[in-house]
Amino acid sequence: MDIEGTTSAIAFVKETLFPFAEAELDAFLDAHGREPEVAAILEEVRATAPGEEPRAALRRWMAEDAKVTPLKTLQGLIWRAGFEDGRLKGHLWPDVAPCLRAWHAAGVRLAIYSSGSVAAQRLLFGHSVAGDLTPLLSGFFDTRVGGKREAASYAAITAALGLDAGAVLFLSDVAEELDAAREAGLMTCQLVRAADGTRASGRHAEAADFPAVARLHGLPAA
Prior knowledge:
By secondary structure, the protein is mainly alpha-helical.
């Protein structure tokens, strides 16, 4: 499953998480910039944007909503502080958690693939409005396996899960991600949530919510 536009509102990421990370960037780097984990991220920023001051590069990437791994990793660390002290709670559409619980109980393996870092994914599902859902999830993948519009990324994920591609269903709101997943042999379904303004591509099975996914693909009802 993708997150933004699939399990969670696009607005939560754009209107809550991104502004929080931007507002906290300087204070976080001032407090933690010398710690090995953060220092390594800053070195990766320098390597990715040579000649640019790291904080300037990070703010530029934030403004561009760039899917750059060091930015996503740093955002995850900043969000962790917010989730752990209660300033942030992970948004999920109300239909998501009941379906995840039903699917997990029936033995369906569940995993996440998002451009947000694995750390950020664990925070969102670990501190969600529906409680800690991480015990339901057996895999977390981010752009370190590759871009979300590249078929090779989905092949790498299915290999990591030890599954045949044809046994895996990928859920996303983005048609180009689904195109790549199908090219790698996965089943696909586009989440077309009216509240997010998603437009159906016509190239994939479509569902308005997770119960509709269950009906389309023979998964247990919540």
